[in-house]
Amino acid sequence: MEKVVVIGLGLIGGSMALSLKQNHSRKIIGIDLNSDHAQQAINLGIVDKIGELTTVSDAAIVIIAVPVDAIPDVAVAVLDLIGTETLVFDVGSVKERVCDRIKDHPKRGNFVAAHPIAGTEYSGPEAAFIGLFKKKRNMICEPEKTHPKLLEKACALFEELEMKTEMMCPLEHDKHIAYVSHLSHISSFMLGKTVLEIEPNEATIFAMAGSGFESTVRLAKSSPAMWAPIFMQNKTNVLKSLEEYIRNLETFKKHIENHEKKEVFRIMEETNRIKNILNGISK
């Protein structure tokens, strides 16, 4: 049986384990520093067995699904232990740090810097489900630095998960993901924080919150343990995106203060074209 080791058994790692486990020719071994998560993964049938880091030494595939600030160290530790034919890939949403950390490793060719753009606001093994990656985009950075056979194997695996894979350099990836993903999470957290501070009465929030508020603040339910490291790891790009966002908020605020209805309308109307972009993505 093909031995697959999944390091980190939360939403992403757990969902990937479940999806790959459907192929009965694979044995899925899980590793997680959180003993409760490890036990849940066994109880839920996400993995066949819980192992130690040394388990990767004879694995066919190793998936690193830990928080992004831990990925570079874990990647080096795994590459130090694996055999020459082992495929290793991470699923983090920040790529520059890990790519830089392993660039001179003798087994750099075994590594694929991947980012499946998928997820929900929930976390932990109980949040994992089959089909999370279906019809989602997957980014691979620095494909030229991976051995061609192992890159082909990785792409076949991502295709099995029904993802569409694209290639991008780490710098560009981290810049763009700050705008389209990281900023939206910060916005959601801060909207939730603002409402909680202005309206301390939880019953009032519950009674008056409509679907618009619920959908906008949904991401604030995401795990801080996962997202705080992402903001720190992609600090430069996150700060730039925040500066642009704050500038737009201040401009919009001034137009409202000055009762400039035409400008308020114009900004909103121009922004409406985002629906065409999102409709194209959803197709």
Provide a short characterization of the protein structure.
The chain has 283 residues and is α/β, with parallel strands linked by helices. It is built from twelve helices and eight strands. It starts with a strand and ends with a helix.
Structural features, described:
- The chain is an alpha/beta fold and 283 residues long.
- The protein has two domains: 2-168, Rossmann fold; 173-282, Orthogonal Bundle (6-phosphogluconate dehydrogenase C-terminal fold), CATH 1.10.3660.10.
- The protein is 52% helix and 13% strand.
- It has twelve helices and eight strands.
- It has helices at 11-21, 35-43, 71-81, 96-101, 148-160, 170-198, 202-208, 211-217, 224-233, 235-257, 261-271, 274-282, and strands at 2-7, 26-31, 49-50, 61-64, 87-90, 111-116, 137-141, 164-168.
- The protein has an eight-stranded mixed beta sheet, with helices on both faces.
- Helix 4 links the parallel strand 5 (87-90) and strand 6 (111-116).
- The protein starts with a strand and ends with a helix.
Strand content: 5-15%
Assign the CATH topology of the largest domain: Rossmann fold
Largest sheet: 8 strands, mixed
Q: Residue ranges: pLDDT <50 for 5 or more in a row?
A: none
The 3D shape can be described as globular
Overall average pLDDT: 94
Walk across the major sheet and give the strand order. Answer: 3-2-1-4-5-6-7-8
CATH architecture of the largest domain: 3-Layer(aba) Sandwich
> What top-tier CATH class of the largest domain fits best?
Alpha Beta
Radius of gyration equals 21 Å
